[in-house]
Design brief:
The chain has about 120 residues and is mainly beta. Helix content is about 0%, strand content about 55%.
C-alpha cells in the first residue's frame, strides 16, 4: 500500500513563506511524476505545480515566480517552497504521485490527505 503524508502547512501572514513536504512510503519500484494540488472552499481542486521524473517542472500561472517544486528521489519526497504568499493561496494542499509498484509494470497513483495553508491579510 502506497501512502503519501504531507506536512508543513499552517497559518502565515501575507508576504510570508511556507515549505510543504510530502513523503511517499510503501513498496514502490519507481516514482514518475509528483505534484501539488490545492482546493479552496467552494472551488475545484487545481494543479499548483508538478515535477516530472526528468526533473522538468510546470506551474499554475498564479504561482509562477513565487512557488518552487523540488524532489529528493533518495527520500521519495517532494517539496513545495511557497514565497510571497497571499490570501488567494489559502487552500488545502494535496500531494499526488504516480509510478510503478514492481518491475512487471503494476502502477499506482495516490493522493495524500492534505495540509491546510491559511494566509491572513
Amino acid at each position: 500500500q502506497v501512502q503519501l503524508v504531507e506536512s508543513g502547512g499552517g497559518l502565515v501572514q501575507a508576504g510570508g513563506s511556507l515549505r510543504l513536504s510530502c513523503a511517499v512510503s510503501g513498496s514502490i519500484f519507481s516514482i514518475n511524476d509528483m505534484g501539488w494540488y490545492r482546493q479552496a472552499p467552494g472551488k475545484q481542486r487545481e494543479l499548483v505545480a508538478i515535477i516530472y521524473s526528468s526533473g522538468n517542472t510546470n506551474y499554475e500561472d498564479s504561482v509562477k515566480g513565487r512557488f518552487a517544486i523540488s524532489r529528493d528521489n533518495a527520500k521519495n519526497t517532494v517539496y513545495l517552497q511557497m514565497n510571497d504568499l497571499n490570501p488567494g493561496d489559502t487552500a488545502v494542499y494535496y500531494c499526488n504521485a504516480d509510478g510503478r509498484l514492481d518491475y512487471s509494470g503494476r502502477s499506482f497513483a495516490s493522493w495524500g490527505r492534505g495540509t491546510q495553508v491559511t494566509v491572513s491579510s
